[in-house]
Design a protein that fits this description.
about 140 residues; alpha+beta; Aminopeptidase
Length: about 140
């Protein structure tokens, strides 16, 4: 399936619905796998965010990413927060296009959340700034 621009750049929701639904259905198994690792959202909550244009879904037949624009008091950030598939395909097909889109949307920084070690395979200018540690409060 060809890459579709993120929903927030498409003129009308009528144009987005068929292509978003088809891509969503195609990537659902891999998305579910990714969501199990993330543990913050379920597929329905993400789909609702996409329909409300609070998130963007970038995809090809080999990879997908869910992004969002985060507005902080001092800067606007393009956040790639869910990813699945082939990282090389993502970098080839979406990296430059996504960054250019984010810049046009007023972002001055991009963040990529991924598994430990992924920062080593991202292109130059990406730097590792922090590490997130998680403590599950539901356990004893």
């Amino acid at each position: 399936m060809p890459h579709q621009p993120p929903p927030s750049t498409t003129p009308s929701s009528d144009d987005v619905a068929p292509s978003l639904y088809a891509a969503w259905h195609y990537w659902m198994p891999k998305l579910q796998e990714t969501l199990q690792r993330d543990g913050k959202y379920d597929a329905l909550s993400i789909f609702e965010m996409l329909c409300k244009r609070q998130a963007q879904f970038w995809c090809s037949d080999k990879s997908f990413a869910v992004t969002e624009l985060l507005q902080y008091p001092l800067k606007k950030v393009f956040h790639v927060w869910l990813f699945g598939g082939d990282l090389e395909d993502f970098l080839k097909n979406f990296h430059d296009q996504g960054l250019a889109w984010a810049k046009a949307e007023g972002c001055i920084e991009a963040q990529f959340d991924g598994r430990i070690g992924w920062h080593k395979v991202l292109p130059e200018r990406w730097e590792r700034r922090s590490e997130t540690c998680v403590f599950d409060l539901r356990e004893g």
